Amino acid sequence: MARRYLQATALRQTIQAAKVKDERILAKVAAIELEVALAGKQFHSASRHGKRLFLKLNDSLWLALHLGLTGRLIYLESEAEEPRHTRLLISFENGHRLAFDDPRIFGEVGLTKSPAAFLVERKIGPDALLLEREGFLEIMSKRKGLIKPALLNQNLVAGLGNLYADEALFQAGICPKTRGLTIEQLIALYSSIQDVLKTALSTDANLSKLPDSYLLPHRHPGGTCPRDGALLRHEKIGGRTSYFCPEHQKRIMFDKK
Ligand SMILES: [Zn+2]
């Protein structure tokens, strides 16, 4: 989504100037340092890892972006008006600009030597969509805690947010409060994570375009399960609101407790 958007707009154009408009967006970098690092360079490529984007400036310098919950990258053609909550504005020599708009400042911007170095430094786990099944089983079978917080732990697997974690558990028929999943359950969960993330990509994360058989269109107080009609339950699990079906996501015999 954001990566493809950047590829179609902002790559391989010389940056005339970068302006940090709100320093709260910065992670471990000073505004002047970031502005100097960007000036005169081009973004050569864009890669994604979980919810992070990396834009290559040269062999040893990348811009690292996290869009957070409310951040967007907007490419502004010539005179187009700058979004209201622009935190970083990059002007290109061709007269167009790239704005990082983030009303609530959940996102962040920084510099790194390479995406790999950044991920190691921040202890970020493998990207959920690129993770092989064996890797997922390896990581998750060692976990003793509840499954839902483990799915959201970005140190284990990156890129699965609260909504899509609920969706994957729903599709795999696993209660978010289960601990000690069987290999069969983990295999089912792995394939539903892949399905859910691919569907999310193909719909550009537009929740209204998801199939009605998904949990997310029904994920609200009073919503019912599209499979069996049960009233969905919601409660805080690991500090995050979780929705699940008490009927087909029961904690049955697999729960060792
Ligand atoms: Zn159900």
Q: Could you describe the 3D structure shown?
A:
This protein has 257 residues and is an alpha+beta fold. It has 2 domains: 120 residues, Alpha-Beta Barrel (N-terminal domain of MutM-like DNA repair proteins); 112 residues, Helicase, Ruva Protein, domain 3, CATH 1.10.8.50. The chain is built from 7 helices and 10 strands. The strands form 3 sheets. The chain has a 4-stranded antiparallel beta sheet. It has a 4-stranded antiparallel beta sheet with strand order 2-3-4-8, sandwiched between helices. The chain has a two-stranded antiparallel sheet with strand order 9-10. A hairpin with a 2-residue loop joins β2 and β3. α6 packs across α7. The chain is elongated and about 60 Å long. The structure holds zinc ion. The site of zinc ion (ZN) has 7 residues, from loops.
In short:
It is built from 7 helices and 10 strands.
| Rg, alpha carbons | 20 Å
- Amino-to-carboxy terminus distance: 40 Å
Low-confidence stretches: none
Q: Major β-sheet, in short? A: 4 strands, antiparallel
Small ligands present = zinc ion
